Each structure stands twice: as structure tokens, then as C-alpha cells.
From TrEMBL:
Name of the protein in its database record: Histidine phosphatase family protein
Annotated source species: Pseudooceanicola lipolyticus
Organism domain of life: Bacteria
PROSITE patterns with a match to the protein in the record: PG_MUTASE
UniProt cross-references to InterPro entries, sorted A to Z: His_Pase_superF_clade-1, His_PPase_superfam, PG/BPGM_mutase_AS
Gene Ontology molecular function, alphabetical: catalytic activity
Cross-referenced Pfam families: His_Phos_1 (PF00300)
Amino acid sequence: MIRHGQTDANRDQIIAGRLEAQLTSEGRAAAARLADWPWPGEIALFA
């Protein structure tokens, strides 16, 4: 299971709801690491 990267809202323990929360530097770094992940097959989206 993959979650979104850290945002300024969840870092500060704010429930952002529908607001546009920005990724923190840690969240951007996590997304970059995920981009290099060796995916074994197809990815399913569960929303």
C-alpha cells in the first residue's frame, strides 16, 4: 500500500479536508524514492 507523501498539513496535525496541502521536503523526497522503485507489475488504485 502506498500513501501520499508528507504534507505541511499532516506534519502539523491539521485536517486539511479539501484544501490543497503542499508536500514538505520530506514528502517530495519520499515521492522521488518511490519513482525509482522497481515495480513488479501493474498497480491498482483504491480510493
